[in-house]
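Kindly review this protein for my students:
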Amino acid sequence: MKSHRTFKKRRSVSGSYAKQGLIYFTCLDYKNQPRHMQRKIENLCVRHGGSYYQALFETVTTDIEPVAVCMRHYISSQTTLNKLIKTFYESWV
């Protein structure tokens, strides 16, 4: 069952509300993005997610709550996932 998240600016991530929103909604609409944008999202997840790249990908491309993603991917702390999300957003160019 999906839990519907709403977009909120991440205070720990540099960048404006508008830029963070653009990244958030672009990733959430992953399936409808052109192939080059899908590759960009995938590559950023692999580069910054390390062994947790699948969890990072699931977090940024779905509206599933991060705590549920952590449980599904055996990540013991949501702080770990939040750090990955932060680097993902900050590396978006």
Remarks:
- The CA atoms of residues 28 and 61 lie 4 Å apart.
- Helices lie at 17-28, 35-49, 53-61, 66-72, 78-91.
- The chain is about 60% helix and 0% strand.
- The mean pLDDT is 93.
